[in-house]
Write a structure and sequence with these properties.
globular, 219 residues, five-stranded parallel β-sheet, Rossmann fold
């Protein structure tokens, strides 16, 4: 089954995607992680993406589309995948359809994780990452034993530039503007399923898995 997870920053789609991919054996394709990896490695695509990510702006379509198409099409095709945070606009959605069509494949469902701005800001601005080993923490949901210090290696924790309050609000604004047509596009195809992502992680996961089980029975 080929699935897309959509939703603004802070909707929790990444957490849901990681859990679902492990439980269902799906290929988790996170454009955010792929882009951040390229930025950290200082690759050509990473250098192009960095200036946009640090400002909270969306990375240009051609950069993101090339990365995703390469991943989906590796070894001929990527079966049973979960796209996390892609596509983000109508152009990307059409490019994805074209890529899948060329592989004689298609999407089965698109989950949209709807979340309030208040919840999204709280989730994102509370995230911290270890400067040494890269472990993730959250000041509310998963705090370190000692403030500002990694439990695992003792290195200092730091916040990503795109997780500061001002940048988060800009990211949410840009996301809403860019995805209005995208949501309509998938609704018209009968693929979109909206999820209330303000709720507890477990509740959201249960709703997603029930929907997938129902779709599997219909296939």
């Amino acid at each position: 089954m080929n699935v897309v997870f959509l939703g603004p920053p802070g909707a929790g789609k990444g957490t849901q995607a990681e859990t679902l991919s492990k439980q269902r054996g799906m290929e988790h394709i996170s454009t955010g992680e792929m882009l951040r990896g390229a930025v950290d490695a200082g690759t050509p695509v990473g250098l192009r993406a960095r200036k946009y990510m640090e400002k909270g702006a969306l990375v240009p379509d051609d950069v993101v589309v090339d990365i995703v198409a390469e991943r989906i099409g590796k070894n001929g095709r990527c079966k049973n995948f979960l796209l996390d945070g892609f596509p983000r606009n109508l152009n990307q959605a059409k490019a994805l359809d074209k890529t899948l069509s060329g592989l004689k494949d298609r999407l089965d469902v698109v989950f949209y994780f709807a979340v309030s701005e208040e919840t999204a800001v709280s989730r994102l601005t509370g995230r911290w990452i270890c400067s040494g080993c890269g472990s993730n923490y959250h000041q509310h949901y998963m705090p370190p034993k000692k403030p500002g210090v990694c439990d695992k290696c003792g290195k200092a924790l730091q916040q990503r530039p795109d997780d500061k309050v001002e940048t988060v609000k800009e990211r949410l604004k840009v996301y809403r503007k860019q995805t209005a047509d995208l949501i309509d596009y998938y609704e018209k195809q009968g693929l979109l399923m909206k999820i209330n992502a303000d709720r507890d992680v477990k509740e959201v996961y249960e709703e997603v898995t029930k929907a997938l089980d129902s779709l599997n029975r219909e296939r």
